[in-house]
Design a protein that fits this description.
By secondary structure, this protein is α/β, with parallel strands linked by helices. Helices cover 32% and strands 12% of the residues. The strands form two sheets. A seven-stranded mixed beta sheet has the order 1-9-8-2-7-3-6, with helices on both faces. α3 (82-94) packs across α6 (181-192), α4 crosses α5 (144-155) and α8 crosses α9.
């Protein structure tokens, strides 16, 4: 019997903060036989992961995550103003839109360190475009702060924009949806006009159908001719993004970028990280239009497109944040 067939005596690690999903495991540590939605439509048998209990969610939130903060970066407090929290809760309950621009400006004002922004000369001055960025988040640094800085910086040079984040529609633990989070995320999306999509890590949901619906809405925003131009913000890393370095893209993100670029909208890379004093640093790079090699199969086309996008993001990051995407590439250093 091979070593891989033996049952491991060590328990599988739990997902920290309920943000990064884990694949479910069977009794011998092997992955469960879970089929895709297309296989379900064909009548194939599937084993759906159980709903997370409060105990499992609490354990995931309390599980330490090694090297969560980049080396040398101090622990800072990112405040959430009490008045804003009450107003946000009220508008979520009422389903009332908020001024996303005002909320982003507030997120920048309460940052514990003055942020650094570079490369604004690369932001297109007319028309819609797509931002491709790294998902810079951990438990004590909510993605809303880097995202708020990104949109606030765009509005400093383009007053005619509307910003729309493409984001997950639920929290996931061990491949299963955390109860009530789809409702909560839908309320936030309505307030801030976001585009929701079910991530492929959600083994108990039809993520393929959700991705098609999200792509149709994104295409509609980019093709809109009446009103302000749209800026879509996409994180190819999906749920797996962190502050420890750039990670591989989520499946399907590369083909989605190609479909969005086919509208004529340029893709604009952006990277966020923390300086050694804790200040957020945002850098934009030159826009591009992907031209994939002819004849690539669908899976290889997806990998090529997402790989090219993340390599462009990696060029904007310092060496310590590039992960596996920045080997041998020179750093882009735009003007401030």
């Amino acid at each position: 019997m091979h070593d891989r067939d033996k049952e491991s005596p060590h328990p599988r690690p739990r997902s920290p903060a309920g943000i990064r999903a884990l694949q479910p495991a069977g009794p011998a540590g092997e992955r469960r036989d879970v089929q895709s939605p297309s296989q379900r439509r064909e009548g194939a048998r599937e084993e759906v992961p159980p709903r997370p209990t409060l105990r499992r969610i609490s354990r995931a939130l309390r599980t330490p995550q090694p090297d969560e903060r980049p080396p040398g970066v101090p622990k800072l407090r990112y405040p959430i103003p009490l008045g804003w929290a009450f107003a946000m809760g009220r508008d979520m309950i009422l389903g009332r839109p908020r001024s996303f621009r005002a909320d982003c400006a507030l997120a920048v004002r309460v940052l514990p360190r003055l942020p650094v922004v570079e490369g604004l000369e690369h932001v297109p001055r007319v028309g819609p475009f797509v931002i491709v960025a790294n998902h810079y988040q951990r438990r004590d640094l909510w993605i809303g702060y880097p995202g708020g800085l990104l949109c606030h910086s765009l509005w400093s040079v383009r007053d005619d924009l509307t910003c729309h984040f493409v984001t997950t529609d639920r929290a996931i633990v061990d491949g299963a949806t955390v109860p009530l989070t789809p409702l909560l995320f839908a309320r936030v999306a309505r307030v801030w006009d976001m585009v929701l999509v079910t991530p492929p890590e959600a083994l108990d949901a039809d993520h393929e159908g959700s991705q098609r619906r999200a792509l149709r809405r994104c295409l509609g925003l980019l093709r809109r001719t009446d009103g302000p131009s749209a800026a879509l913000i996409i994180y190819p890393e999906g749920l797996h993004g962190s502050t420890r370095g750039l990670l591989p893209a989520s499946p399907g993100s590369g083909r989605s970028l190609l479909a969005l670029a086919a509208t004529g909208a340029p893709l604009l890379p952006a990277a966020v990280w923390e300086e050694l004093d804790g200040a957020l640093h945002l850098r934009f790079g030159p826009s591009w239009r992907p031209t994939p090699p002819a004849g690539l199969p669908k899976a290889e086309l997806d990998a090529w497109s997402s790989g090219e996008a993340l390599r462009r993001v990696a060029k904007l990051l310092p060496d310590r944040q590039r992960g596996t995407h920045g080997a041998g590439c020179a750093t882009e250093t735009p003007r401030r």
